[in-house]
Write a structure and sequence with these properties.
Elements: E1 4-5, E2 10-11, H1 17-20, H2 30-36, H3 43-46, H4 61-76, E3 81-82, E4 88-95, E5 98-108, H5 109-114, E6 117-118, H6 125-138, E7 140-141, E8 145-149, H7 153-163, E9 169-172, E10 178-184, H8 187-197, E11 203-207, H9 209-224, E12 237-244, E13 250-251, E14 253-257, H10 265-272, E15 276-282, E16 293-298, E17 301-307, H11 322-332, E18 346-350, H12 356-363, E19 369-373, H13 378-387, E20 397-398, E21 409-410
């Protein structure tokens, strides 16, 4: 079971929210962030290297110092203000006519240690260390992590009551995604939400594995420094937006490869035919429409690849994944790419960019071949997390991303 609690968010007054709110730190490089950041943008806090000319190393001490300076300045200028009492918050996102409703809350670091917060990806220590520094220097969770939880009818009913009222924030960002935010400040509703989640068996990390791991490590660090530790201190908690699993949609996460491992296009097609039914689809974009079907772009043409029977195991939570099939039967077996985490011959393209991005990168000569995959389902993600397994790298892409700056959680 999971333990949650409300918190007094540090957040923008509504007249500033569109200027403060920003895309997450990890979806923009420094040059893109500098171009995108207005005067009040949270990017000055999450990517402070952009305040230097020329841009400096984001991992340097001057960048970290600037992050602290800017967070204090935003509060002094009234661009970020802390709520007077702990609350829960509803954060809804609209994309392509579909809206998902999450609860902004604090989760307990003990649940990460115990496995009640379940992950499906490995983390890298260097990335954890970087996120730890940001939490430590600010003594705050500046950006939330993205969790899923098993659908609960009573939670949905409480959320529905609040969204029937006027939102605190309601805007469409430059990417066309809608963001809507309500404050749950009723003591009765707050107590009931806390009680309901005490009976929910697990959270599933959807996006933010490194931030989750970093928050847990900072919590452990601070408790080790506090001889009077009780487990209820604010540093034991970290900020998340948790969505019912039924409302979430994972989109495709595709692959582009720089070379054909010494093969000609004709030899690649012949090699693929051993494990796939290969069919030419022409010059128009072809999108996979079912599990175990892939599309490939090669030499100006799209192909359908359907994995043959016996080449996968639908009873194995890892073996059923199309990323596993592609990695084993194509990337490793034919193209000689054995480690997706370290190989410089492969790149990954989120489905939000569309399949046209795959053909563009091949047609430009940058890449030799592209593969599009059918998206992983939430059931597959949950099955893997429940079994204690880890998905292959770059398997899930959640969209829309959480907007940063709508709420910040101070650890003290």
């Amino acid at each position: 079971m999971v333990k949650i609690r409300p918190f007094a968010a540090v957040r923008p007054p509504k007249q500033y929210v569109e200027e403060v709110a920003a895309r997450p730190y990890d979806v923009l490089n420094s040059v893109e962030a500098k171009a995108e950041a207005g005067e009040k943008s949270l990017l000055h806090i999450t990517k402070p290297e952009i305040d230097f000319d020329p841009i400096i190393d984001e991992h340097s001490q001057p960048a970290y110092d600037k992050a602290v300076e800017n967070f204090k300045a935003w509060q002094q200028k009234g661009w970020l203000v802390q709520d007077e009492k702990p609350c829960y918050y509803v954060y809804a996102q609209t994309m392509d006519g579909r809206t998902q409703y999450g609860l902004v809350m604090c989760a307990h670091t003990d649940d990460y240690a115990s496995g009640a917060i379940k992950k499906h990806e490995l983390t890298r220590k260097d990335k954890e260390d970087d996120r730890m520094i940001h939490v430590r220097i600010q003594n705050a969770n500046i950006e939330p992590v993205f969790f899923a939880y098993p659908d609960n009818a009573e939670v949905n009913a409480i959320v529905e009551r609040y969204i029937a009222g006027e939102p605190e924030y309601d805007f469409v960002a430059e990417d066309g995604f809608g963001h809507h935010f309500w404050v749950i400040d009723s003591e009765e509703d707050i107590a009931r939400i806390t009680e309901i989640f005490a009976g929910i068996p697990a959270f599933y990390v959807a996006d933010g594995h490194h931030r989750t791991a970093a928050a847990a490590r900072v919590g452990a660090e601070l408790r080790g420094q506090n001889p009077s530790h009780t487990g209820e201190e604010e540093y034991n908690y970290f900020m998340t937006v948790a969505f019912p699993d039924s409302q979430l949609k994972i989109i495709d996460y595709n692959r582009v490869v720089k070379d054909l491992n010494g093969l000609t296009p004709e030899q690649l097609l012949e090699a693929l035919s051993a494990d796939f039914e290969v069919r030419e689809e022409g010059c128009e974009i072809y999108k996979p429409c079912r599990l175990h079907e892939f599309s490939m772009y090669l030499s100006g043409k799209w192909y359908s690849l359907v994995a043959k029977e016996g080449r996968y195991d639908d009873n194995d939570p890892i073996g059923v994944l199309d990323v596993t099939i592609l990695s084993n039967l194509v990337l490793d077996k034919i193209l000689g790419i054995t480690d997706l985490r370290t190989s410089k011959r492969i790149d990954f393209v989120g489905g939000i960019r569309g399949l046209g991005e795959l053909s563009r990168r091949v047609d430009s000569g940058e890449m030799a071949v592209a593969f599009a995959l059918y998206p992983v389902s939430m059931k597959q993600l949950i099955d893997i997390a429940d079994s204690g397994n880890i998905m292959p790298p770059k398997t899930t892409w959640f969209e829309p991303k959480l907007r940063s700056g709508l709420a910040i959680h101070k650890l003290a």
